Amino acid sequence: FLPSSASSDSFLQCLSTVIPSELVFTQSSSGFTSVLQSSVQNPKFITNTTVRPLFIVTASDVSHVQAAVRCGRTNGVRIRVRSGGHDYEGLSYRSVQPEVFAVLDLARLRGVHLSPGEGSAWVDAGTTLGELYYAVGTTNPGFLFPGGVCATVGVSGFVSGGGIGLMMRKYGVGGDNVLDAKIINANGDVLDRAAMGEDVFWAIRGGSGESFGVVVAWRLKLSPVPTTVTVVNNVRTLEQGAPDLLAKWESTILSPLNIPDLTTRVVLQGRVAIFQTLYLGRCTDLLDTVLNVFPELGMTSGDCNEMSWLRAMAFIYFGNTTTPVEVLLNRTNYVAGHYYKAKSDYVRRAVGSAGWSSLYQQWLSKNGNGKMVLEPHGGAVGGANTATASPYPHRRGVLFNIQYGSDWCCDANGTMAAAGLAWLDGIYGFMGPFVTSNPREAYANYRDLDLGKNVIGQDGLSSYWSGRVWAERYFMGNYRRLAAAKAMADPGDYFRNEQTIPPLPK
Ligand code: FDA
Q: Which terminus of the chain faces fewer neighbouring Cβ atoms within 10 Å, N or C?
């Protein structure tokens, strides 16, 4: 994989036998920049110093993916696969170190294939969650897929890193809901579940994207949903007792509020806590439960918004009842254009009112652009049988996941960036005593290169030992099993980035 113009020419020549030229972009093509930027979420990764791909292949057919892998492998060009482009460190379209690579963009390879009344769907890899929600909600309205909040996230990245959201307490994480998949291996062959084997099939359902091959389609399980669900946003300020409410909320997650149909996540920003509830049923039943176990929240029937599941997905994403559900089909993130960095944690012991109070006083109220999102676990995700569940390891005993986010405008490396990053490091340090340790768990899909990067060994492979540093925080005891699956699926480590699973040494 040494840079050479000869191998670049051969790569293009090789592609041209299978892929129409209008689907392949070189750095000198007029459309290169707009295609590269088409799904970039964070302008931090498209500056003058970003290591960009030499080529972009916008595959519209599985044969194009096969050709890209075969031609890349033969000619020393690595492939970075991009589906929705939401990777928090931009690793689907940029490299941290200088490297010869092509982006294999799957946005054209999208579509949802389902029939009314059927509890599963084949979903092409480039489909976004919003496109999936729309297809399921309009064609198969009695069913849902338990996805995340942001409609522009790619199904492939979501499932490949676990996939958490407001429906996981009832149905498990995204990776628990995959029935079959089609993957292109490093030889360019198409393998389904039977052909790839159960070890690799287990690994692709949450063991991190890019590591095991290119997924071109997923068969996803769809689950029944009532005709009417209820969504509620309760906004409470510091002055209205947000720390006490948070303390009560966290003490109810696993019991007595461990009701899988009911999920209340919380967004903390400035002096405010927004309690966002999704209940898979009607308002009267929701109130019966909440008023019993969490009356302090003060939820009333006037707060309830009853609607279809599809409409609820739009409400949760757009924050209103008026945006048409068709806007879920828009692949451009409506918050695109802002710079940000995220980190994550897991909490297994309640933080308590005093802890929340200090957090507000010392950190949240000092930065209006800093945010924390608390995603409750329990229910199906916490009770999963770890022997059969997908690689997502943060299950039994986890109260909630924390995502910390810091946003700033308008520079990648200037004063605003420094202030935003310093705030993030500070709040992450403050939370240390309240969260898990040894390892300090982190969520793979909230990718964070501060946790570590792979080192390439003298054998030319990503080192298993360097991977332990970051991967045991994402995957805990599942890391070794994932590395064994990598050694089976891609022993030569062709598919790799700074945080892909290294092959288990022999
Ligand atoms: P992208 O295309 O960047 O890919 C991410 C990784 O997967 C890369 O390593 C890529 O190479 C690899 N990959 C992509 N397609 C592949 C394929 N077909 N085969 C093999 N590897 C592939 N998460 C969550 O669980 N719940 C949530 O609610 C949210 N919400 C959210 C909102 C916003 C605004 C952002 C930016 C992110 C989230 N996330 C999230 C995190 C999200 O799940 C995570 O970033 C996913 O990896 C994004 O998947 P994409 O396909 O969009 O990313």
A: C
Report d(CA 476, CA 443) in Å as an integer.
11
* Buried/exposed 331-348: b ≥16 CB within 10 Å, e otherwise: bebeeeeebbbbbbbbbb
Nearest residue to 226 via CA among 262, 257, 253, 254: 262
Write out residues in the chain with pLDDT < 70, as ranges: 1-6, 333-337, 384-388
Report pLDDT digits (tens) over 133-187. Answer: 999 999 999 999 999 999 999 999 999 999 999 999 999 999 999 999 999 999 9
The string of pLDDT tens digits covering residues 192-234 is 999 999 999 999 999 999 999 999 999 999 999 999 999 999 9
How far apart are the C-alpha atoms of 469 and 495, rounded to whole Å?
20
> Where does residue 5 rank: exposed (0-12), middle (13-18), buried (19+ CB within 10 A)?
exposed
Residue 384: the pLDDT is 66
What totals of helices (H) and strands (E) does the chain contain, helices first? 16, 18
Backbone φ and ψ of 214, nearest 5°: -100, 115
The DSSP output letter for 272 is E
Q: Which pLDDT score is estimated for 98?
A: 93
State in Å: Cα 119 to ligand 1 middle.
24
The letter for the amino acid at 236 is R
| CB of 215 sitting under 6 A from ligand 1 | yes
User: Cβ(124) to ligand 1 under 6 A?
Assistant: no
CA distances from 386 to 121, 158, 233, 436 (A): 25, 20, 33, 19
Residue 497 CA: which ligand 1 atom is closest?
A: 9
- Tell me how far the alpha carbon of residue 188 lies from the centroid of ligand 1, in angstroms: 23
Written as one letter, the residue type at 18 is: V
Percent of the chain whose predicted confidence (pLDDT) is above 70: 97
pLDDT at residue number 414: 82
User: What is the Å distance from ligand 1's center to 446 Cα?
Assistant: 9
Ligand 1 atom having least distance to the Cα of 212:
20
The set of residues, in sequence order, having a beta carbon less than 8 Å from that of 476 and lying 6+ positions away, is: 393, 394, 439, 441
Question: What is the Å distance from ligand 1's center to 82 Cα?
Answer: 9
90 close to ligand 1 (CB < 6 Angstrom): no
Please list the residues that pair with 112 across neighbouring strands.
Answer: 123
ipTM: 0.99
Give 231's strand partners: 278, 305
Q: What is the DSSP annotation of 102-126?
A: EEEE-TTS--EE--TT-SEEEEETT
